[in-house]
Predict the structure.
Amino acid sequence: MKEKLITTQIQIATYEELTAEEKKLIDAAKNATKNSYAPYSKFNVGAAILLDNGEIITGNNQENAAYPSGLCAERVTMFYANSRYPNNAPKALAIASYANNNFLADPITPCGACRQSLLETEVRFKNNIKVYLYGTKHIYIIESIKALLPLSFDNSSLT
Ligand code: THU
């Protein structure tokens, strides 16, 4: 029997260590938490996507009284970016979350359904999307969505 090891490299940085462009994207994600509609969980998530034309698209989680009908910040934002800019590849994505009057100290990571949806965009544009997961204590930086979803299913399997 053979074995295969799949690893994910994560860079851990402080806000101060980032470039001005990276800080701007994270600030946009933090700011986007303010427009989150999360009356049920009271967990406000903001996302910001940098497109290859330099534009930053922001969004946040949108909940619903019928709980499963709500949508995470990552998908709200990516779907909007793709619908508004179908010809511009997303280059980077930042995520921040705010609860109990504070930004979270440790980064949160996208749920499984978001990872799959985000992967579609990465594959579609043949362009890695760099991910910044913001926490006040530290920021996780991951080179691509694919790295967040090992053994993923994508359209290369469809004939
Ligand atoms: N949520 C996001 O928007 N993104 C994540 O990465 C994790 C969770 C939302 C969904 C729901 O509105 C709330 O956070 C609590 O799960």
